[in-house]
Each structure stands twice: as structure tokens, then as C-alpha cells.
Write a structure and sequence with these properties.
Helix content is about 75%, strand content about 0%. By secondary structure, it is mainly α. The termini are far apart. Residues about 1-10 have low confidence and may be disordered.
Length: about 290
């Protein structure tokens, strides 16, 4: 802006028209013309967020994600409530290998717009490639959504999900108890109390993992095998049913997991015999 001239407002028609012209050049592949327009806008309004992000997109396309991070970061300092800007920052950070920061950017975009499909894809892509992931409740909820809504192939998200589920302190205690008893299967209520058993059904990430992807984790597999054995115990002992009624959501998810893994969990001959007897009782009850 020339000395003594009137300040230019970012919402003036001339600025909007200039940006639209730049975008038209950009979409048509006339990148030099688009860049010239964006830079002219920034001469008048140095921190115009849209011009900064658009110029950042050109820089990224030209193989300069570092410059894109700087430009988009300036835009977010002016207007932090635009999910699209957070998403584009995430892409640039991802390409620089700064995966923790990229994940934070995708999360910020999804916090502002939960149904933002591109940010969902970016989030899932980050989970697949990142060597470390957060452990906070908000992240667990997003990861559960990613599994349930297939933001990526659930199988690609299973490793990170299983690790996060297994490391949760409340569950880790019960997994360790099952491992200590293995190969003996003492029943679900011996390994985990009735109240904690019911709490498993409230673990959204655990349910999402069991319902949508095969669990390839030896510790969790053995724990789930014990839980399945405990469900059979309860089904054959009417006085036990009431004690585990609150855990129905968990056991439904466990049934889904068994279907997904082709019923691979180990079963003793005694367990198979008791399951067969229960099946016959159910069939007879239906017949009558």
C-alpha cells in the first residue's frame, strides 16, 4: 500500500474479485498469473488469510511445503476458526514428516467441522504412518469414529487402536490378570469384577475395534478368549446373567469380533461340549 493511501479492507469487492480471478487462473493451471494476483493482494493486506493460504497452496504444489507451513501459519494467526486452513496446514506438515503437528492440525479441523471428509482422511493417514499417537480421551473418540465410519481401512487402524486399548490403565490390569491365569480360563468375573466388566461396554474405542477390525494382538486375544469363556459360564448359570447384564454392549462387540476373525480363539473340548449343549437347549426352546 502506498504511503498516504487509504487502507484496503479485506472484504472490499476489489479484493474478493482479485482472489476469484487468482483462483480461476489457479484452477486453469496458470500458476504464475495466480501467484502474481495473490502477491498483489498481500501487498495491500499483508495478512489476508485467504491470499496467504492460496499462496501457500502454490508453494506446496511447487515442492515447498516449508514455505506453505509458514504462509498458512500466518493465516491461522489471523483467523484460527477456519477448518480448511487447518487441513491444508496438516497436509504441508505431513509432507515435511512432522506427523505429530500434522495430526494436531487435522484434529483442529475436525473440532471445527466434525464431518470434514478430507480432514478425516488426513487424520487416518497420519495414524497409519505415525510412530506415536496421543492418548487423551478426545483422540480416543476420534479414533473410534475413524474405525466405525471407515475413514480408512479399519485393518490399517487396528494396530494403533489395539495398542491404545491395551495401554489403558483400567483394562491393562485385567489383561494382565488373564495372562497370569493362562491357559486356565477362570471366568470373566474372576478376572474382572462385575462393575468393571460393565465398564468395558462403555469403552467406545474398544467396541469400535472389536466390531470393525480383526485384533492382531496376542495379549488382547487371550483376554478376549477368557471373556468369551466367561460369557458361556454366565449363559449356563442363570444366577450369573444378572451380574453381567450391564456388559451386554461389550459382549455383542466380542461376538462381532469372533465373526470377523473366523472364530479363531482357542476353545477347550469341554467348552465346545458346553456350547453345543447350550445350542441344543436354545434350538429346543425355539422348536417348542
Amino acid at each position: 500500500m502506498k504511503a498516504g493511501s487509504k487502507p484496503v479492507r479485506s472484504d472490499e469487492p476489489s479484493i474478493r474479485n482479485a482472489l476469484q480471478a487468482g483462483i480461476a487462473h489457479h484452477q486453469a493451471g496458470r500458476l504464475a498469473e495466480a501467484e502474481a494476483i495473490y502477491r498483489r493482494v498481500l501487498e495491500d493486506i499483508p495478512n489476508h488469510p485467504d491470499a496467504l493460504v492460496l499462496l501457500g497452496g502454490l508453494a506446496h504444489r511447487a515442492g515447498r511445503p516449508d514455505m506453505a507451513v509458514d504462509l498458512i501459519g500466518r493465516a491461522l494467526a489471523v483467523n484460527p476458526a477456519t477448518p480448511n486452513h487447518h487441513y491444508h496446514l496438516g497436509i504441508a506438515l505431513h509432507d515435511l514428516g512432522r506427523l505429530d503437528e500434522a495430526l494436531s492440525s487435522y484434529r483442529a479441523a475436525l473440532q471445527l467441522q466434525p464431518d470434514y471428509a478430507l480432514a478425516q482422511f488426513g487424520f487416518a493417514r497420519c495414524i497409519v504412518t505415525s510412530p506415536s499417537i496421543p492418548t487423551d480421551a478426545g483422540f480416543r473418540d476420534l479414533l473410534a469414529r475413524a474405525l466405525s465410519e471407515a475413514w480408512a481401512r479399519p485393518a490399517d487402524l487396528a494396530r494403533a487402536s489395539a495398542g491404545l486399548v491395551r495401554s489403558e490403565p483400567g483394562l491393562r490390569e485385567h489383561v494382565d490378570a488373564a495372562l497370569r491365569a493362562w491357559p486356565v480360563q477362570p471366568g470373566a468375573r474372576v478376572v474382572i469384577g462385575a462393575s468393571a466388566l460393565a465398564a468395558l461396554g462403555g469403552d467406545r474405542l474398544l467396541r469400535a475395534l472389536l466390531e470393525n477390525a480383526q485384533v492382531f494382538d496376542a495379549d488382547l486375544e487371550r483376554f478376549l478368549t477368557v471373556m468369551r469363556h466367561g460369557l458361556l459360564d454366565a449363559a449356563l448359570a442363570p444366577d450369573s446373567i444378572e451380574a453381567i447384564e450391564g456388559s451386554l454392549a461389550f459382549f455383542c462387540a466380542l461376538a462381532r469380533q469372533c465373526f470377523l476373525n473366523d472364530y479363531v480363539f482357542a476353545a477347550t473340548e469341554d467348552e465346545l461340549d458346553r456350547a453345543g449343549g447350550l445350542r441344543d437347549r436354545v434350538a429346543a426352546a425355539v422348536e417348542s
